Amino acid sequence: MLPDNRFSLSSEVEAAGVRLAAFDVLNGSTSTEAMESGRAGDPGPLWVVTDHQLGGRGRRNRAWSSPKGNLAASLLLTTNASVALAATLGFVAGVALERAIVRVAPFLRHRVSLKWPNDILADGSKLAGILLESEPLDAGRRIVVVGIGVNVVAAPEGLPYPATSLLSMGGAMSAQQLFSALADEWLRCVGLWDEGRGVAVIRDLWLERASGLGAPVSVQTPEGVLGGVFETIDDAGRLIMQRADGRSLAIAAGEVHFGTAATVRKD
After folding, report:
1. Spatial distance between the Cα atoms of 259 and 236, rounded to a whole number of angstroms
2. Residue 147 contacts by C-beta under 8 Å, 6 or more apart in sequence?
3. 20 to 30 A Cα–Cα from 240, which one of 69, 127, 168, 171?
4. How many Å apart are CA 16 and CA 40, to the nearest integer?
């Protein structure tokens, strides 16, 4: 573990009771480390962070590349929120991360957007991803780990979608700088979320920065590919799609494609 002077929390974040575990390198992932701490009885909030992660993972257990210099950060929380309500913390993370990126790279203000359900795009290419994991505890409480990966200095190659990094876009900042901004913005945004009472506020903030609103969208779901127009998200974080027959359909999870890619996909 590294001294706290490499990755650090502001005095405001520390005063809120948030703690930090920073690592030079992790053979596994920050989310695994955070979840193990939660299982051992740590109630959080605890940030686990590194700029070199060897065992990162994304949705559906896909590998998440995190070479030296990129940001891998996971926040351990415990909450009384239901599974469905706890899932909206992914949107809290999206809003907080977008704000943090713009804070350290203001020139990206109009180039960064939020892609449903858990990606950050820059000029349409994937810049960051968010992954939530949850396990039940006793007395109605549950562990939630909010995992965040940002391509700070390098983006993976050979993916089925375009990816980019802050450095390639002209953002010469460190993972440590970005993390400090993220920890600050998370504190503000989770305060707005207010244990789920403010989920509508977070929804509105997320929609302000959403990619593809009003545009053709297709979503790969376990039931097949569904196409329509991206109308909004509801308070549960579900994508609301308007179908060709005028009906609205709520989708809880799936792989999203916008624009031209959406129009060539069939139901």
Report:
1. 25
2. 29, 30, 31, 34, 72, 73, 74, 130, 131, 132, 133
3. 127
4. 22
CA distance 144 to 136: 9
3 state SS of 50:
strand
Residues 6+ apart with CB under 8 A from 251: 219, 221, 226, 238, 239, 240, 241
Closest to 131 (Cα-Cα) out of 119, 146, 120: 146
Of the pLDDT bands very low, low, confident and very high (cuts 50, 70, 90), residue 10 is very high
Distance CA 21, CA 8 (A): 9
Quickly tell me which residue has 């179908």 as its tokens.
243
First and final C-alpha spacing in the chain: 50
CB 18 within 8 A of CB 9: yes
Residue 218 forms beta bridges with which residues?
A: 227, 257
Residue 113 has pLDDT above 70, yes or no: yes
